[in-house]
């Protein structure tokens, strides 16, 4: 009886320990074992050196999953294919952790996304960083799927050459175009260009330009000397000081309101003058007429004075004298 109880306690201890262990595994990441995963694979016809199992997979920079396996098509799908007919692709399988609904949705949309240009491409995480697999939409006409004649185990996603490979290919193409160029013709054109340049340089009147430059420099020296004398003149300093004093007075007048008061006084005086002229308009007209009459009388008196100065001063003109022998 005692032995049966001891076995019962031992069994309970084992069950409780297993429950605690399972709970710890779930809390520490074991929940991933029960998550839905979506697997797809892509093929490369070039080297994927630097891409390792476990490398991150990102869709436009967003973490999506990781590389689950890196294989060769010869070992995976072309074991029974003759060596000369094998494609020798690199098979990269990707595991994406999604919920069950998201995984089903991705399976349904896989063909549509591929038709729109979704492609896998190896990229560097920096200048010298680790390679990762990047998913993005590219031109589907430029990056067509690789040809193969087997049935993929997982949904297939076409690939695109990495940006580094494209850069190297462009550089190689540029170097090839340089190699194919007519070097001798380029050399002749360069020699002709240098000859024309030398002829043009010889035609430049260097001596004349030097003489003109020296004359301009002498003129500039004279101008600078006159400016120095002008700046050293005490009257210039006095003028600047006077201008400063005047500016200060004007500024003080503006700040104290004297200018505003002067303008107001001028406006008041103009208004009073307008009112005075308006009230005495008739008197002003009569005065003007009298002045005109007086001016006419003075003009007549002046003419009489010029003709008969004595008569103006003493009396009228002298009587007319009758000479003898002449009829009256």
Gyration radius, to the nearest Å?
Answer: 57 Å
Q: Give the helix level as a range of percent.
A: 55-70%
- Approximately what portion of the residues adopt beta-strand conformation? 5-15%
Distance between the termini: 204 Å
Number of strands: 6
Mean pLDDT: 78
What is the H/E string?
HEEEHEHEEHHHHHHH
Specify the biggest β-sheet.
6 strands, mixed
Structural class: alpha+beta
| Lateral strand order in the biggest sheet | 1-4-3-2-6-5
Low-confidence stretches: 29-34
- The coarse overall form would be elongated
Features:
six-stranded mixed β-sheet; alpha+beta; 328 residues; 58% helix
Structure characterization notes:
The chain is built from 10 helices and 6 strands. The chain is an alpha+beta fold. It has a domain at 32-167. It is elongated and about 195 Å long. Residues 29-34 have low confidence and may be disordered.
Question: Could you give the topology of this structure?
Answer:
Blueprint: H1 2-27, E1 36-44, E2 56-59, E3 62-72, H2 73-76, E4 90-98, H3 100-116, E5 118-124, E6 131-137, H4 163-180, H5 183-203, H6 206-232, H7 234-256, H8 258-279, H9 281-307, H10 309-313
Parallel strand pairs: 2-6
Antiparallel strand pairs: 1-4, 2-3, 3-4, 5-6
Question: In a nutshell, what does this entry contain?
Answer:
With 328 residues, the protein is of the alpha+beta class.
